[in-house]
Amino acid sequence: MEIDLGGIVKGYAVEVAREILVRKELRDFIIDAGGNLGIEWHKRVPVDVQVRHPRKDGKFWCKFPIDSSVGIATSGDYQYYFIEKNK
Q: How would you class 21 by CB atoms within 10 Å of its CB: exposed for 0-12, middle for 13-18, buried for 19 or more?
């Protein structure tokens, strides 16, 4: 058994980066750290966030509008994996 803190660390890094940018008085930005998003959004027009389809390259599984600041985390086996003996 092992504990992997990779997901927690990425989320924490996104939040620290978001705080730095906000302190620098930046607004309306998206930080993407490979499945972890930090979104600072104050515009009246929402931004669409698309989630990639895990089995179809170049396709998206869903799309949803974001109209305020939020954090989003996704997870899947399609970005980090290895193949051994065709499996």
A: middle
The pTM for the full model equals 0.73
Lowest mean pLDDT segment, chosen from 38-42, 43-47, 74-78: 74-78
Write phi, then psi, for 76 (nearest 5 degrees): -170, 165
Q: Which two tokens stand for residue 77?
A: 């086996």
pLDDT tens across 45-74, in order?
Answer: 999 999 888 888 889 989 999 999 998 887
Alpha-carbon distance 39 to 67, whole Å? 10
Backbone phi, then psi, for 19, in 5-degree steps? -60, -40
Which ranges constitute the DSSP H helices of the chain? 6-23
